[in-house]
């Protein structure tokens, strides 16, 4: 079953660390968000393979927005 990785806050995508097809372990960094001059890592909640990354660097994201999907 696929796991959606969501933004916990409003911010901009500073760096995308993972791409589709990457194998990740639980707590691996997928995306780094920037909010109020702070860098906030978004980590994989589960181990698996990244199916897709739905954001790119410079995108502005909303709280609850899906950033990536892990199978």
What does it look like?
- By secondary structure, the protein is mainly β.
- The chain has one domain (3-70): Beta Barrel (OB fold (Dihydrolipoamide Acetyltransferase, E2P)), CATH 2.40.50.
- The protein contains no helices and eight strands.
- Strand 4 and strand 5 (38-43) form a beta hairpin.
- The radius of gyration is 11 Å and the shape is globular.
Task: Please provide a brief summary of the model.
The protein is an all-beta fold. It has strands at 3-6, 11-16, 23-24, 29-35, 38-43, 48-53, 60-61, 66-70.
Task: Count the DSSP helices.
Answer: 0
**Largest sheet descriptor:** 4 strands, antiparallel
Helix content: under 10%
What shape does the CA trace take? globular
Radius of gyration: 11 Å
Spatial separation of the terminal alpha carbons: 6 Å
Which CATH architecture?
Beta Barrel
The total tally of domains equals 1
What distinguishing features does this structure have?
single chain, 71 residues, mainly beta, four-stranded antiparallel beta sheet, 0% helix
Topology of helices and strands:
Blueprint: E1 3-6, E2 11-16, E3 23-24, E4 29-35, E5 38-43, E6 48-53, E7 60-61, E8 66-70
Antiparallel strand pairs: 1-8, 2-4, 2-7, 3-6, 4-5, 6-8
């Amino acid at each position: 079953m696929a796991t959606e990785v969501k933004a916990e806050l409003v911010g901009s995508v500073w760096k995308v660390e993972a791409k589709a097809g990457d194998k990740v372990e639980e707590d691996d960094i997928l995306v780094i968000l920037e909010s109020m001059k702070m860098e906030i890592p978004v980590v994989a909640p589960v181990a698996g393979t990244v199916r897709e990354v739905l954001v790119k660097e410079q995108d502005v994201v909303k709280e609850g927005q899906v950033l990536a999907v892990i199978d």
